[in-house]
Structures are given as C-alpha cells and as structure tokens.
Amino acid sequence: MHDSPKADVLALAQALIRCPSVTPVDAGAQEVLAVALGEAGFDCHYLPFAEPEAEEVQNLFARIGENGPHLCFAGHTDVVPPGDEADWLHPPFAAVVDNGVLYGRGACDMKGAVAAFAAAAIDWVNAQQAAGKPLPGSLSFLITGDEEGPAINGTVKVLEWMADNGHVPDACIVGEPSCAEELGDTIKNGRRGSLNLFIECQGVQGHTAYPEKAINPVHALARLVHRMTERPLDEGTEFFQPSSVQFSTFDVGNAATNVIPERAKATCNIRFNTHHTPDSLRRWAQALAEEVQHETGARFFMNMVVSGESFITEGGTLIEVMQEAVRAETGLTPALSTGGGTSDARFIKNYCPVAEFGLVNETIHQINERVLVEDLKRLQRIYRRMIELFFARACAS
Predict the structure, then answer these.
(1) Where are the domains of the chain?
(2) 147 an active-site residue?
C-alpha cells in the first residue's frame, strides 16, 4: 500500500520545520500536525497552559480509538534558537533538501521524529481501514511546545489533563534523538536524575592583613567544593554510569584585593542514578556543609531545584517491541542506554512504561542541524512496525 499524501514523512517534516517555533512560540507547528492527524480521524485537543509570570505554551493531544490497549507517542515541536543564520548552509527554517539531506532547526530534535511517527500512524490507520479492520486499541500523541524551555506548562500539565480525562496510556514512546552514530544503535530506557544546588557561604568581612579578625567564606566554600567532589558518590549500576557532581559557578563579586568578602556563592549540578534520591543528596551535601561550618565558623545556606529523578524501564512488552522493530528494519540490535541529559520521559514515567527512540543526535542544537532523508523514511518504517507489534503483543496477552 502506498503512503497517502498526509503520510509523506518528508513533506510533513518540511512543513513542521518551516514553522519557526522557538520556545515558547508555536508559529503554527502544532496546527500542521493537528490538520494531518485530524484528516486521518484523530480527535485533536489544543491545550494551552500558562503560569501568571510565564508565557503561554501551546500543547496538543490527539487520539484515535476509545479503548485499550493504548500506545502514546510523546514529542515536542518547539526548538532552540538557530544562532547566527548567516552561518547556516541553508536558512534554518527553509527545510531545504540538499543531496539527500534535510537541513533545518528541529530536523533531528525533534520535528523529524514527530513527522515520522505521525506518518507511520496515519499510514497504519489507513491500512486498517482499507482492510476493513477495526482498530485494535488506541493510538495517541502528546505534543508539547515547552520541552526546550522550563518544561512547566507542557508535558506535566498535559499528563494531568490526560489523567483527568481518561487518556492515560499503557505505554509511551518518546521520539527524542536517541541514536549515537547510526539509526537503530540506541534505545534510551531510562534517564539519570538531575538537580541543582545553589550554595551560599556567609563569613565575616575583614582586612586581608588581619585574617584572624575575619572568617573567609571563599576558603570555606572551596573546602566544601573539594569535599563534595574528592570521592565518587557511587560506582554506577548495571544500567547507569556513576553519579556526577559538577560545579558550574563560583562567585564572590569582590573587586577589592585587600578585603576578605562576606559572602561567596557556588552552583552545583548533580546527575544521579537510582542509588540516590534528591532528598538523600540534599542530606549528603548538608552533612558535608555542617562539617565545614564546624571547622571554619562560616555558615552555609542551600537551595535545591530538581529537574528530574532517575528512572529505568526494564524489559517488558514496550522494550521488546521497540528492539524487535529496530532489528527488523535496520539489522542492528539497539543498545539500552540511560546516558545524556533529561527529557520529558522523566514526567511520563509516573504514568506508564516509557522509552525513547529517535534519530541520530550528532547535529542537534548545532548550526546546520540536518538528517538524511533516508533516515526519516526508515524511522517511519520502524515506528510503523512498533505500532503493529505493540498491538499484536498487547492484544494477545
């Protein structure tokens, strides 16, 4: 069966890229997707959310089918800024195909994957209808415009809306660019947690010639930094690399060379595995700070902001289906990985099993972000096979 025009993955990817949807601006991207899905029979809901002090974010939920099993695809149509457009080989929002390569901001991260799954879903629905077969379950899309931003008014709130309205899926595939070198080499079946500690050390200001009359917060904070980084938090797990403590700032703001400052500040990012929780890491850092405080007389204050907790999806139908589909279409056995940064899977894991598979991530967020057109087409075929296998397995169990 030939793909319908609305199941043309390249045309759909180009239409999405041509919408300059830099977070949180939608620029019509979700309408492009909703029109294509709506014509295939999906029931589409626009879900704008906003906080009092934040810009409104556009989100889209689309579903076809009323019963389970229910497979959801999650992704985002927002993109990072293109940088200096003069540095691009082709304009970043022109979606030019040059020698078999599609150029554009979002080509890999992740409008290409959104287009591939939409094309696969539309083609699958059309095939079911052409064969006179009822849908064996429900297929849905959770699309946000806030993944590259603060992630406050996007997936978190859409998931709450889905739960309130009877749309919680049985499994979810996130289309983030998971592959390292070639399409099919990696599935992300979990993610490390991430948190930031904002640390302030308060001492006693004084003259550098009379240090006995002051408490130097720079020395105390440097001692704490060393103590937090001198030994590993852990040695990793079967699925996770060792947790990492990285200081990104150390600020004093003191222009005088002969003054011991009153305060010093530092920011620490911790990427952690399932050996830890945010609360356990807060207690660990506070215990070390109390040691240094006792030794130096300086006082420490900490604030913690959690971006996401670590999680793992081990085995089960979803992982088996994804691996089998990738092997069938590429001949590769994808490695299971938990590396990289955070994604919206960190929110979805609270509702259902979730894993990530998408394009090669080599050029994401870069000048001349690009994807092979053939990879887009292969990804569509992989997603189509994932859909078929998921319903076959779920309905048989």
Answers:
(1) 5-191+310-396, 193-308
(2) yes
